[in-house]
Amino acid sequence: MIRPMINRDSQFFWDGTAVDELRIQRCNACAELRFPPGPACPDCGALDRGFVVSGGVGTVFSYIVHRHPPVPGKELPIVIALVDLDEGVRMVGEVVDVADDQIEIGMRLRVDYHHVDDDLTLPVWRVAEEDQ
């Protein structure tokens, strides 16, 4: 499996997934939310960062179905979606337990967590209860 790069800007995110929390970076100066995380606020330029815990629910903005080439540690096809979180940020992630011909724009998803090993937990997306 290809592992994500974890650095000082994203460590809080991965610490969150380890305890089943979807954390979104928040600027402590202006309260702007952002994803992916970075060193400075794109709105005000402040370096004072914190985070909020997302409710973990969002809507499919767009998606792709990856059929080729093979991905180490993954079975194809893989459904990847851009998810608009209810908090107002967009994040990309794998959608699981949805057939590649069932995913659709506007579908409501909820976050879940795939515990790969003791050092890595990945957020994945499933159909939200109200859409099943």
TrEMBL record:
SUPFAM superfamilies: Nucleic acid-binding proteins (SSF50249). Residues 14-46 form the ChsH2 rubredoxin-like zinc ribbon domain. InterPro entries: ChsH2_C, ChsH2_Znr, NA-bd_OB-fold, Thioester_dehydratase-like. Pfam families: OB_ChsH2_C, zf-ChsH2. Residues 53-113 form the ChsH2 C-terminal OB-fold domain. This is Unannotated protein. It comes from freshwater metagenome. The lineage of its organism: unclassified sequences, metagenomes, ecological metagenomes.
